[in-house]
């Protein structure tokens, strides 16, 4: 019997006999999502249920009702409501031959990150405009030198997309088991600093592979070149441009006193780090003394230093 709404109804059952099959409206719906189920008329059940431990495939088959069995008396079953037709969407555009059209949006294939090379500037172009050049910068300095402030300001105001990657921020991703620098240097501190440098290096390569410049800041010591500059060169590439930010000790102590949390070190530790950083003098790396410079002035001087470094790359 055909239902008025288009969905077939199950065959009626005989008195005292369960129905021959279990009827599922979803099996007859073209989309697999039927509308509200109609009310079950008298005489319809849910089908035979096997006893516990007996598979349903071993249940004896129920004989089908005779073809001319009379339908049970009762009110007629109302037709099942039909869902309104879905609005027609825009026509699908076929992809060119040999090209698979993506079924979802927002999936962008990114190029693999590779070792960073020094930006090439044609000789006829003269002094390069570093504000519009994609490059990678390593800003070196002691705690309190103003590396983070200068790096953020410099990255915010460039003509090309630029990211700021802070080694301290990445290192502090470690929560449980964090090696606090205030507790001294140990094997855990060494391991977490090296891991943070490698993570920052991978991030820098990926940014640059997608046309985004980056500036990294770290307290790299000149008396440990293999761990410091050597590590950055391995992780980022030979095109990384290192610049040292080294104000006077009094300025560093004042700025460190304004810090809070685990980034504030003791005066003795700040003085010791500053003394080690003085070894960068005579190393060949460009050095900026920002003792009497504000952040915008230091950022402008950084652009001048980078322009010279691109024209004549430092040996490191």
Question: What's this entry about, in short?
Answer:
The chain is of the alpha/beta class. It has eight helices and five strands, in the order H-E-H-E-H-H-E-H-E-H-H-E-H.
Q: Layout of helices and strands, plus pairs?
A:
Blueprint lengths: L24 H4 L107 E5 L6 H10 L5 E5 H5 L15 H23 L3 E6 L10 H7 L5 E5 L3 H9 L9 H11 L9 E2 L6 H17 L5
Parallel strand pairs: 1-3, 1-4, 2-3, 4-5
Helix pairs in contact: 2-8, 4-5, 6-7
Poorly predicted segments: 21-30
Alpha carbon gyration radius: 37 Å
DSSP helix fraction: 25-40%
Overall 3D geometry? globular
Per CATH, the architecture of the domain at 130-311 is: 3-Layer(aba) Sandwich
CATH superfamily of the domain at 130-311: P-loop containing nucleotide triphosphate hydrolases
InterPro entries: P-loop_NTPase
Protein name: Adenylate kinase
Keywords: Kinase, Transferase
Biased composition (Pro residues): 8-18, 62-94
Explain this structure to me?
The protein is an alpha/beta fold and 316 residues long. 27% of the residues lie in helices and 7% in strands. It is built from eight helices and five strands. The chain has a domain at 130-311: 3-Layer(aba) Sandwich (Rossmann fold), CATH 3.40.50. A five-stranded parallel β-sheet has the order 2-3-1-4-5, sandwiched between helices.
């Amino acid at each position: 019997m055909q239902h008025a709404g288009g969905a077939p109804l199950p065959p009626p059952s005989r008195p005292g006999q369960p129905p021959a099959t279990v009827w599922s409206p979803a099996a007859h719906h073209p989309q697999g999502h039927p509308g509200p189920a109609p009310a079950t008329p008298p005489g319809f059940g849910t089908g035979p249920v096997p006893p516990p431990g007996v598979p349903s495939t071993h249940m004896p088959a129920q004989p089908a009702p005779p073809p001319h069995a009379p339908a049970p008396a009762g009110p007629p079953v109302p037709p099942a409501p039909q869902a309104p037709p879905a609005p027609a969407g825009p026509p699908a555009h076929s992809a060119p031959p040999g090209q698979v059209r993506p079924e979802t949006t927002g999936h962008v294939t990114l190029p693999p990150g590779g070792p960073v090379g020094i930006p090439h500037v044609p000789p006829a172009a003269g002094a390069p405009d570093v504000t519009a050049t994609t490059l990678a910068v390593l800003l070196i300095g002691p705690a309190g030198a103003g590396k983070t402030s200068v790096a953020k300001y410099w990255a915010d105001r460039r003509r090309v997309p630029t990211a700021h990657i802070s080694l301290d921020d990445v290192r502090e991703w470690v929560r449980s088991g964090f090696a606090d620098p205030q507790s001294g240097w140990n094997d855990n501190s060494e391991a977490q600093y090296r891991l943070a440098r490698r993570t920052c290096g991978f991030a820098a390569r990926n940014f640059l592979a997608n046309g985004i410049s980056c500036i990294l800041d770290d307290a790299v010591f000149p008396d440990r070149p293999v761990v410091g500059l050597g590590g950055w060169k391995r992780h980022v590439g030979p095109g990384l441009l290192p610049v040292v930010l080294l104000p006077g000790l009094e300025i560093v102590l004042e700025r460190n006193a304004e810090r809070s949390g685990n980034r504030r070190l003791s005066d003795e530790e700040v003085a010791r780090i500053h003394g080690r950083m003085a070894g960068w003098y005579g190393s060949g790396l460009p050095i900026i003394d920002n003792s009497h410079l504000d952040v915008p002035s230091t950022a402008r001087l950084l652009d001048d230093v980078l322009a010279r470094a691109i024209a004549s790359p430092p040996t490191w």
